[in-house]
Amino acid sequence: MHEMSLCESILKIVQDQAASQKFERVITVYLELGVLSHVTPEAMLFCFDIVTKDSLADGAKLEIHQAPGQAWCLGCEKNVKIEKWGQPCPECTNYNLQITAGDEMKVTELEVE
Question: Does residue 1 register a pLDDT over 70?
């Protein structure tokens, strides 16, 4: 389950920010998670609670915003919305798509005390 190591990386980001910005407790971590990222939001929520136990983020809420997938179609030369890998272009049915958004995962905001 790679979500566990991803949550460990999130905790490291939180700890680094706590050291540089001098806060002691995290209330909420806001995470942008692309629909094409191969990461399951439910697994992230489960792993986050385990990884943050006994840390400055213990009891914090992980708020996940799912970002839509987008691609550039090399066939019709349009920017199109896609919902999963391997999907054809919704405009021309070409499979030659270059992903431009929706495969990312990033901490966008921290609510702290």
Answer: no
The answer to whether position 87 is within a domain reads no
What tokens does 72 get? 């550039």
Residue 69 Cα to chain centre, angstroms: 12
Q: Is the separation of the CB atoms in 67 and 36 below 8 Å?
A: no
> Is 48 in contact with 10 (CB distance < 8 Å)?
yes
Domain with 6 in it: 2-68+102-112
Q: Is the pLDDT of residue 2 over 90?
A: no
Q: What is the CATH number of the domain that holds 33?
A: 3.30.2320.50
- As a three-state string, the secondary structure of 18-45 is HHHHCCCCEEEEEEEEECCCCCCHHHHH
* Per-residue pLDDT tens digits for 31-62: 999 999 999 999 999 999 999 999 999 999 99
